[in-house]
Amino acid sequence: MAPVVTGKFGERPPPKRLTREAMRNYLKERGDQTVLILHAKVAQKSYGNEKRFFCPPPCVYLMGSGWKKKKEQMERDGCSEQESQPCAFIGIGNSDQEMQQLNLEGKNYCTAKTLYISDSDKRKHFMLSVKMFYGNSDDIGVFLSKRIKVISKPSKKKQSLKNADYIKTFRTDCMHCLRNKGGSV
């Protein structure tokens, strides 16, 4: 038997009001699921066949107790451990380059060590794109980073003291960590 549909096509149901009880349950349970993408503010362009991987490599963190709660709920509902595992792919957005799979198995973080931008890509800025879903194909969503500026390798003659160490900065909402080619600053 087909489901009965009421209302006009494309008409949305009225929004549900947030009740005090629903807010209390949320504050008590706190099933937050946060995706944090840490990356440098700049990425050096690759030339020819070389691949200048992003340094430091972008990192994706899954934060909040909701990830564990969702996994447990899916397994109670009959999903296997593999089906309840979040999967992620990362790419440089709007590019011919394929997205790369991230290894999240059993962890709440992963690193994209082989991302690069080629010289055929003429963009001056781009955003990382992280596509996430569960092992059973349930979609989680697509998450974009902040803008990353593309820089080319400066000529040795024009290289100033200011950019000699290629200092790169991780972006977060509340913290900045600096790193250069030789290690921490």
Tell me what the structure shows.
One of its GO terms (molecular function) is DNA binding. This is Recombination signal binding protein for immunoglobulin kappa J region. Residues 34-165 form the RBP-J/Cbf11/Cbf12 DNA binding domain. The protein contains 2 helices and 12 strands; from the N terminus they run H-E-E-E-H-E-E-E-E-E-E-E-E-E. It is mostly beta strands and 185 residues long. Strand 11 (178-180) and strand 12 form a beta hairpin. The longest helix is centred in the middle third of the chain and has 11 residues, at 66-76. It is elongated.
Order of helices and strands: HEEEHEEEEEEEEE
Distance between the termini: 67 Å
Number of strands: 12
Query: Helical proportion?
Result: 10-25%
Tell me the fraction of residues in β-strands, as a range: 25-35%
Radius of gyration: 21 Å
Q: Which fold name corresponds to the CATH topology?
A: Immunoglobulin-like
CATH architecture assignment: Sandwich
Question: Which CATH class?
Answer: Mainly Beta
Sheet with most strands = 6 strands, mixed
How are the strands of the biggest sheet laid out side by side? Answer: 5-4-8-9-2-7
Output mean pLDDT.
80
- The tally of domains stands at 1
Task: Determine the CATH superfamily.
Answer: LAG1, DNA binding domain
* Shape designation: elongated
Structural class: mainly beta
* pLDDT < 50 runs, ≥5 residues: 1-7, 161-185
SS element count, helices? 2
Keywords:
185 residues; mainly beta; Immunoglobulin-like; 6-stranded mixed beta sheet; 3-stranded antiparallel beta sheet; 2 helices; 32% strand; disordered N terminus; disordered C terminus; p53-like_TF_DNA-bd_sf
